[in-house]
Specification:
single chain, alpha/beta, Gyrase A, domain 2, five-stranded parallel β-sheet, three-stranded antiparallel β-sheet
Length: about 575
């Protein structure tokens, strides 16, 4: 539809003003102007044509008003051209929204986009600060896959390093000698005790380094203990990931790159990128104009570091998957690390795909008591349990207006959804503010508001006997509320594209919030079930499409929506 309008605009500009290659942009006009689309092309072309913008705008009216799909065209302001379509033409555009609800097929031969996210530390419970990487990363993956992009969600658990030496020493001194600790909580207790004891006995730190060196060298007993710790941690992660609706495609911990680091170190030394530092350590020195401090890639005792494994991981991903892009969904605190990493890859002369630190801000709590909590980190499970408890209290308080056969299931859906949506509704590049009242509100930009709106739409459809058939493609007219709802639905495909291209989930959450507002205004203003048959059919179809967009959008955001609420 817009292509046909654009063709007419191009033809007039070429024939009357000898202008070619003029970009024609169609926008949503201000709400008070009651039009479907607007273009500033007359303003853009006026200087080149040597005539006032309004003259070009008036000329455009002569060709646009004669098109069969156009109800009216008019000049607005200093030279904008507003176009209002015939209702039937506007409804046909909704076919694009329907198509956008279905995931596009993925060509498994395409170079993949690799999204690195999660990155949990083995033997430690996930904290609230891990939420951003898990949730934002999974949503980016969901959107890419939905749009038909071959995408690999890749998690990189910290299952290697000196902390395992510390755990091994702690287990030998205070733990279960044979099998090792059996829960993540017990592992954490051992880790905490090690650090407390090491303050009094610094020699314990040396023992831990020696233990990890033995682990790297292949000590069978330490390897068995390490495997037990990893297996215990993964079992706990699986349960939490099911609750989060997080499902990585590939899991390779730091240990996976144990035999892949030596070739990278050898290459770096051979190319003169890795040079010897103090006591035989290997470092990368960057040019002064980069402002980057040196990067340590091998310690003086020969042991490796996180940066070493990151470089080996990049090399492995490039050689094995030939990706088109590498996106690292990691918080802002790691910005320097990724700058050093990319600079090192370039010094090595690697042929790099698109490389981006898909940064998100630090998490802060509106409730100051939660930010401090005696200096200890807040566990992710505690947050979810607290959210579900609060949601259950709201359900009990509103028992006359919230109808459900499964209050416990609804509380879980609302509580976990509120946390995910609360994070996703904020611009990821800014600090993320965690606010219980806003996240669990039924009246603002929140998961409960989206879930309630979906349930309301589904309730209308149940009372109507089910969703209608095909969307009507003709209508004698449209009320302002109907037309506003059509426009909110039409925006969905473009919003998905924007959220995908820029990896900004909040554009999708904000759109779904707007759709909820517009639908609720439509619901309150227009009779649906009691309308005349032709009007009833249209309104039911718009209600059904709204429910589908909300359900699809929520699923992409890792949320679930209830049928009743």
């Amino acid at each position: 539809m817009l292509e046909r309008l654009t063709t007419q605009v191009h033809s007039l500009l070429k024939e009357r003003y000898k202008l070619t290659n003029v970009a024609v942009e169609w926008r949503n006009p201000p709400q008070q102007e009651q039009a479907d689309f607007a273009t500033p092309v007359a303003l853009q072309a006026a200087k080149a044509a040597g005539v006032p913008p309004k003259e070009i705008a008036q000329a455009l009216l002569s060709v646009l008003q004669g098109l069969p799909d156009v109800e009216r065209a008019e000049v607005a302001g200093v030279g904008y051209v507003n176009v209002t379509l015939q209702p039937s033409a506007l409804l046909k555009l909704l076919l694009g929204t329907q198509e956008a609800l279905t995931a596009r097929p993925i060509n498994e031969k395409d170079p993949p986009v690799i999204v690195d996210y999660c990155g949990p530390n083995i033997a430690k419970p996930l904290g609230a600060h891990h939420l951003g990487s898990h949730i934002i990363g999974q949503v980016i993956i969901n959107i890419y896959k939905h749009r038909g992009v071959r995408t690999i969600g890749w998690t990189y658990p910290g299952d290697w390093g000196t902390q395992f030496g510390k755990l091994a020493v702690a287990n030998r001194l205070w733990g279960k000698k044979k099998s090792g600790a059996s829960t993540v909580e017990e592992l954490l207790a051992l880790y905490v005790r090690f650090h407390k004891e090491a303050e009094k006995k610094p020699a314990l730190e040396d023992e831990a380094r020696e233990a990890f060196a033995k682990l790297e060298a292949g000590d069978k007993e330490l390897r068995a203990f390490w495997k037990h710790v990893v297996d215990t941690s993964y079992a706990a992660l699986d349960a939490l990931y099911a609750r989060l609706h997080v499902h990585p495609d590939v899991v390779t911990g730091e240990s996976f790159y144990e035999d892949k680091m030596a070739p990278v170190l050898e290459e770096g030394v051979r190319k003169g990128v890795f040079t010897e530092g103090e006591k035989g350590a290997l470092i990368v020195q960057f040019a002064e104009d980069t402002g980057l401090p040196p990067l340590l890639v091998r310690k003086s005792d020969g042991s490796t570091l996180y940066a070493t494994r990151d470089l080996a991981m990049i090399r492995y991903r490039i050689d094995t998957y030939h990706p088109s892009a590498l996106y690292y969904v990691v918080d802002v605190a790691q910005s320097l690390h990724f700058k050093q990493l990319l600079a090192t890859c370039r010094l090595l002369g690697w042929d790099m795909p698109e490389f981006e630190h898909t940064v998100f801000g630090r998490m802060r709590f509106a409730d100051a008591s939660m930010s401090t909590r005696k200096g200890t980190s807040i566990r992710m499970e505690q947050l979810f349990d607290e959210a579900v408890r609060r949601a259950a209290a709201i359900i009990a308080e509103r028992k006359d207006t919230i109808l459900t056969d499964d209050p416990a299931g609804l509380a879980e859906m609302m509580g976990t959804g509120a946390i995910a949506y609360g994070i996703l509704s904020q611009n990821r590049k800014m600090d993320i503010i965690f606010d219980w009242d806003r996240m669990l509100s039924f009246e603002g930009n929140s998961a409960p508001y989206l879930q309630y709106t979906h349930a309301r739409a589904r309730s209308v459809l149940r009372k109507a006997g089910g969703a209608p058939g095909a969307l009507p493609t003709s209508s004698a007219g449209m009320t302002p509320h109907e037309r506003a709802l059509v426009h909110a639905l039409l925006a969905f495909p473009g919003v998905l594209e924007e959220a995908c291209v820029h990896r900004m989930p909040h554009t999708l959450t904000n759109h779904l919030y707007t759709l909820c507002q517009v639908f609720n205004a439509f619901y309150n203003a227009e009779p649906i079930l009691k309308a005349e048959e032709s009007i009833r059919s249209l309104r039911l179809s718009l209600t059904a499409l709204t429910a589908r967009v909300l359900q699809t959008g929520a699923g992409l955001l890792t949320l679930r929506v209830p049928e009743r609420m």
